[in-house]
Write a structure and sequence with these properties.
This protein is an alpha/beta fold. It has one domain (2-357): TIM Barrel (Alpha-Beta Barrel). 49% of the residues lie in helices and 14% in strands. The chain is built from 16 helices and nine strands. Strands 1, 2, 3, 4, 5, 6, 7, 8 and 9 form a nine-stranded parallel beta sheet that branches. Helix 10 (229-238) runs parallel beside helix 11. The two termini are 15 Å apart. The structure holds guanosine-5'-monophosphate. Guanosine-5'-monophosphate is lined by residues 15-18, 61, 97-98, 163, 165, 194-195, 197, 222, 225, 270, 300-301. The site of guanosine-5'-monophosphate (5GP) has 17 residues, from strand 4.
Length: 360
């Protein structure tokens, strides 16, 4: 569906290392194989496999991190991921990543995140706005160098979310929140809780998430990826600004979600490929969409699941019988759920208004 590609879209749930291009991942793995640091044939087999269980997905992430966690590579991947989203007319991207520390190569959580920001600065195919200058704040050096001059180039707004990995301790989670606060002027907008859902306890992360809230940082949570009802209830009681997935909700959880109107980031291909949801016919997208609950279509891990945001729109349109105009409205409604401020919301409204005129 060509119109899914050409219409403006908003991506709110994309993990940096999950969005890596296959070609980049294979190239990096090949280089490490040549150096004798990994066995390339084994790596290649895992990368090229599709339909992985959630458990296998997390094994794959460990492999991906093995070849990507280096400052230069992190910058390169960030640049490529932003260029790929911009090429399919994503006009606002909230990119999330887990700041990583690796003492062996002198990497701290801060230097990792700075490498991500350097990747944003390196993008050439599109103007990247990643600071708060268009949101009504004072101009920053990044505005002047890069993004805010009225050039004719296509433009994408990129904001960052720092992820807390469920393997982390309370202290490590608080460190990530503090880093997010420190880097707000470089486009960090909020925090995410992700990582293997069968690892870690909700209570471990709550102090860090409460601290984020006290400091005015919005929070999004991976919620209900496994049937842990106590945790789902705890997460919904926290009333995060958004949640992702919501695959294993029972009647009570749906009731609570709908009454609180927490927006849900829906990742169709990811949910199906990991077998979290058995088929699109029974996917909760349809109920949430028909009951006008706030939702946004997202990719989750475009590289790992071989998808794109346009493909997710196309999939939803054909699976649930939703026409072009309604899909356009679905995309536009996501403006209300972004973590960036009113200035960006206004600019995006203008973008969608202009695109609406060309819709027929
Ligand atoms: P990164 O944070 O390294 O840029 O992106 C990969 C990481 O995102 C994974 O190691 C994992 O912690 C998190 N992630 C990616 N996809 C998923 C998902 O579907 N569910 C959860 N819970 N975490 C994910």
């Amino acid at each position: 569906m060509e119109w899914c590609l050409t219409m403006p879209k908003i991506e709110l749930h994309a993990h940096l290392n999950g969005s890596i291009r296959d070609s980049t991942l294979l190239g990096l793995a090949k280089a490490l194989g040549d150096e004798g640091k990994i066995v390339f044939s084994e790596f290649e087999h895992v990368i090229l496999k599709h339909d992985r269980s959630l458990r296998e997905v997390f094994k794959l992430f460990d492999l991906i991190h093995l070849v990507t966690t280096d400052h230069e590579i992190v910058s390169r991947i960030t640049k490529e991921v932003v260029e790929d989203f911009a090429a399919e007319n994503v006009v606002y991207l909230e990119l999330r990543t887990t700041p990583k520390r690796n003492d062996l190569i002198g990497m701290s959580k801060r230097s990792y995140t700075e490498a991500v920001v350097n990747g944003l600065r390196a993008v050439r195919t599109v103007d990247v706005d990643f600071s708060s200058c268009t949101a009504g704040g004072p101009p920053t050096p990044d505005c002047r160098n890069n993004s805010c001059a009225g050039t004719a180039k296509k433009k994408i707004y990129v904001r960052l979310l720092l992820s807390i990995d469920r393997r982390e301790s309370t202290e490590a989670a608080i460190e990530t929140v503090k880093l997010a606060l420190d880097m707000r002027n470089l486009g960090v907008m909020g925090v995410d809780l992700s990582g293997n859902p069968i690892i870690g306890e909700w209570g471990t992360f709550l102090p860090a998430l409460k601290f984020a809230r006290e400091q005015g940082l919005p929070v999004t949570l991976h919620c209900g990826e496994v049937p842990n009802m106590e945790e789902i209830q705890g997460m919904l009681d926290f009333i995060p600004e958004r949640i992702g997935h919501a695959c294993f909700f029972g009647e009570e959880e749906w009731k609570k979600l709908k009454s609180t109107k927490i927006p849900v980031e829906i990742c169709l291909t990811s949910n199906i490929q990991t077998n979290s949801i058995s088929s699109l016919e029974v996917h909760h997208f349809e109920d949430l969409y028909r009951s006008k609950h706030p939702i946004v279509l997202c990719t989750d891990d475009a590289g790992v699941f071989s998808t794109s945001l346009s493909k997710e729109y196309s999939l939803a349109s054909s699976a649930f019988g939703i026409g072009k105009k309604e899909m356009f409205h679905l995309a536009r409604n996501a403006i209300d759920f972004i973590f960036a401020g009113d200035g960006v919301k206004k600019a995006l409204t203008h973008t969608f208004d202009s695109a609406a005129k060309k819709l027929d």
